[in-house]
Amino acid sequence: QDGSAPAMPYEGVEYLVSTTVGGQKLNLDFDTGSADLWVFSSGLSAASKKGHNVYNSASSSTYKALSGYTWSIQYADGSGASGTVGTDTVTIGGTSVKAQAVELATKVSSQFVSDGSDGLVGLAFSNINTVRPRSQKTFFDNANPSLASPLFAAYLPFNANGAYDFGYVDASKYTGSVSYAAVSSSGGFWEYASTSYKVGSTAHAMSGTTGIADTGTTLLLMVDSAVSAYYASVSGAKNTADGWTFPCAATLPSLAIRMGSSAYATIPGSLLNFETYSGSTCYGALQSVGGGTQNIYGDVFFNAYYGIFDSTGPRFGFAAI
Ligand SMILES: O=C([C@@H]1CCCNC1)N1CCCCC1
Q1: What is the pLDDT of residues 122-179, one digit of tens each?
Q2: What is the Å distance from ligand 1's center to 115 Cα?
Q3: Which protein residue has the closest C-alpha to ligand 1 atom 8?
């Protein structure tokens, strides 16, 4: 059954979706860059639970423990969590999965304690799920057979309520036409070739580079050659220990990113000023990915484009919002 769930912006860093797990309501961060569905659980320390909604499997009549199963995940930003596993009914908007693997956190890193989410819904490919001794399927993989079309879509407008649509593309959420990039999922991500970019109208090669569509990352993280070329066009831009900053008064150029073998996605300069850093210095929404050849296109990308995660292919569709 198709469905759509509102995605509420939280402190400019993530979007939270109200999700019920065994009838218990949690605000979860949908993360297309990982494949574990995990929740803050009653087994956490009191200090870790502070400020969060917590799932208590003992209060759910539909919960079934997976005895002896565990999970442990480390994210690229240094955060992490671990715990035990069971199954329960998970409902997101109008889409329900009966025996969804629910990973109960008994440990979470400090970043999650101070974060607004009560857990994550991983929507990358199930081959990178961390549950052992047998890996588990994502919510999308489980729901897919019941959907009208085998896809989900992310609508994440800047500082405004968005949505995740399951089973259909909502033409009211974008303008113009949809372009597609072929996805290679062997690494577990919605990953596609991304081999050139334009700073304003000046094109640059970015050979051998790919992009990963990651709704769980806030910013636009790219290889150093691209980030340096972008800020070279911004007078007063500096690469500090915290990342790239620039004078808040600067007019930022647009950044067009090649998606797959065809179209470019253009991020307007207005979306590339993330926040005030200090005084009249601002912090860029484009930052270095810190190594490797995989760019990570986070929420800033989705602030400009409706993203369609289509398991046919698989392929990643994008259309201007
Ligand atoms: O760990 C992550 C991110 C962290 C933020 C939340 N999404 C997943 N990666 C990004 C995608 C490539 C692998 C590393």
Answers
A1: 999 999 999 999 999 999 999 999 999 999 999 999 999 999 999 999 999 999 999 9
A2: 16
A3: 33
Q: Is 264 exposed, middle or buried (0-12, 13-18, 19+ CB in 10 A)?
A: middle
On whether the CB atoms of residues 16 and 7 are closer than 8 A, the answer is: yes
Residue from 14, 30, 77 whose mutation best tests the ligand 1 pocket (most atoms within 8 A of CB) = 77
Q: Which residues are catalytic?
A: 31, 214
Name the residue type at position 306. Answer: Y
CA distance 233 to 200: 9
Which residue has a Cα nearest atom 6 of ligand 1? 216
Conformational region of residue 211, where left means phi above 0, alpha means psi within -120 to 50, and beta covers everything else:
beta
pLDDT in tens, 90-127: 999 989 999 999 999 999 999 999 999 999 999 999 99
Q: CA 171 → CA 154, 199, 247, 310, distances in Å?
A: 12, 29, 38, 15
Assess whether the C-beta atom of 211 lies below 6 angstroms from ligand 1.
no
Type of residue numbered 320: A
Atom of ligand 1 nearest to the CA of 215: 7
State the DSSP code for 209: -
* Shortest-distance Cα residue to atom 12 of ligand 1: 33
Atom of ligand 1 nearest to the CA of 74: 1
Q: Is 296 in the pocket of ligand 1 (CB under 6 A)?
A: yes
Q: What is the ipTM of this complex?
A: 0.95
- Residue pair 318/278 in contact by the 8 Å Cβ criterion: no
Q: Residue 157 and residue 306: Cα distance in Å, rounded?
A: 9
pTM listed for this prediction: 0.98
